[in-house]
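Forum: Protein Structure Q&A
Topic: Joint prediction for protein chains with partners

I've read a bunch of threads here and the consensus seems to be that you should model interacting components together rather than docking separate models afterwards. I'd like to see that in practice. Below is the full input, 297 residues plus whatever partners are listed. Could one of the regulars post the assembled result?
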Amino acid sequence: KEGEIGFATLPDQVHRKSVKKGFDFTMMVCGESGLGKSTMINSLFLSELYHGRRQQYVQEKINQTVQIETKGIEIEEKGVKLRLTVVDTPGFGDALNCETHWKTIDDFLCSKFMEYYSAESGLNRKCIQDNRVHCCLYFIPPYGHGLREMDINLMKHLQDRVNVIPIISKADTLTRNEVNKLKARIRSDIQTHDIKVYQLPELDSDEDETVRTEDAEIKAAWPFAVVASTQILEVRGQKIHGRLYPWGVVDVEDPEHSDFLKIRKMLIATHMQDLKEVTHDILYEQFRAQLLSSFSN
Ligand code: GDP
Ligand code: MG
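Posted by a regular:
Agreed with the consensus. Here's the joint model:
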């Protein structure tokens, strides 16, 4: 339905008990400075998702990000509450150089794990607010020929702490052909360098048609290429959210130009639960095991 993004189906995916509590979900953006990370976050907050809802976080003019910034919003769909948190990070080149960059982000991710660990060992274990970062959109420049040394390094530093989802930014600067070539190149770079990015879960053999189609669509478009904008433009009487060029307009929600809708749907609706499970069962467990072994040494 219009204006709905579909997280109300989350209860079908998990125990009904969690419905009353609502869902916590945190996403982060990382990558070089100037690739449109902050714009993308604002795009998300500006998009349909927030029409008629709170928009106090949307800025028209985006300043350079100099420190880690967290924005939160609570939205409700069909009685299901979602507390969405978005973490914006300064890119390398901004306030941070390459070597210290990953450390700043790693410290942040660990501090959230640590918070959870303390809460888990406390008295009120039943209603822990989960502030761990469940996924990280890693921004890759459109003008390169695949992953650069620094992208590989940073992704490798991140991969054991967070679900990394690679994203090609500013897809409007490339032709369709160039986008497809770059996507193929990135897929092969990820394999060659053995980078652990987020893997879609295996489908059950009895999974229905809709889920199969969604899964196939995501796999075909992977890694996503996006166009972001904080501008609302008026085109033929319709308000769209896009970028204006001498030759025309790019609508960020037009699937011909941008995988924006696909990524939003994947994060907020179809794969949120899995991203949370991987965070808890694998990444957090790993952190916890390391922590415990450091106590005993
Ligand atoms: P950040 O440093 O990664 O946070 O990048 P910003 O969000 O501050 O954006 C840097 C510049 O890129 C700004 O001038 C944006 O308007 C521009 N920009 C952001 N997204 C896009 C996009 O999808 N396409 C194009 N062409 N420019 C973009
Ligand atoms: Mg920024």
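The chain is about 40% helix and 20% strand.
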